[in-house]
Amino acid sequence: MRKKIIQLTSGRGPAECNFVVTNVFKKFSEACTKSEIKFDIIEREMDKDFHQLSSVIIELEGNDLNTFLKTWLGAILWIGKSPYRKFHQRKNWFIGCFELEIPKENSINPNEIIYQTMRSSGNGGQNVNKVNSAVRAIHQPSGISVVSMDSRSQHQNKKIATTRLLLKLQGFETNKLKDLVQKKWNNQTSIARGNPVKIFRGDKFSE
């Protein structure tokens, strides 16, 4: 099976674009499940005002990912009324879907990474507090560490933490990632907005 890492982003757009990212991610997740593609959330950013996704980085694993992503990579358009500004006239809201470079695991010595387990916190029921399912990955030479408590599975959290750490070590910190995506967004906006790869309509995000 092949792996790819993609990002859905509002491209620093208004709150409505974050609303679109959140709902398109739901559609994307459903499409992955239907196509038997495994996916893990590596990183997510939420806006402070409406608690919607402004960006989400996803690791995909499956067969024929190139074919699957052909209808996702690029500009995605939602046609609908603003859920936040009742009298706003704009109805076309764009977000971007970009592929990111997969971190090269062989560039880092696995023996330099240590793992610690801990109890997860937050939602998830009683299991969250009783099982040490969360994992912290620490890169000993640099002291950089990340935590994953996304899954109830310790094995899955270790996998996510490792990918998250590799991304961070290779310069994909949040600020640098924003700059990278913004450059891609600026380069593609003028062309892609006139030719979105996907169009969703209405409150139900129908295609």
UniProtKB/TrEMBL annotation:
<dbReference type="InterPro" id="IPR000352">
    <property type="entry name" value="Pep_chain_release_fac_I"/>
</dbReference>
<dbReference type="GO" id="GO:0003747">
    <property type="term" value="F:translation release factor activity"/>
</dbReference>
<comment type="similarity">
    <text>Belongs to the prokaryotic/mitochondrial release factor family.</text>
</comment>
<dbReference type="InterPro" id="IPR045853">
    <property type="entry name" value="Pep_chain_release_fac_I_sf"/>
</dbReference>
<dbReference type="Pfam" id="PF00472">
    <property type="entry name" value="RF-1"/>
</dbReference>
<dbReference type="InterPro" id="IPR050057">
    <property type="entry name" value="Prokaryotic/Mito_RF"/>
</dbReference>
<feature type="domain" description="Prokaryotic-type class I peptide chain release factors">
    <location>
        <begin position="119"/>
        <end position="135"/>
    </location>
</feature>
<dbReference type="InterPro" id="IPR017509">
    <property type="entry name" value="PrfH"/>
</dbReference>
<protein>
    <submittedName>
        <fullName>Peptide chain release factor H</fullName>
    </submittedName>
</protein>
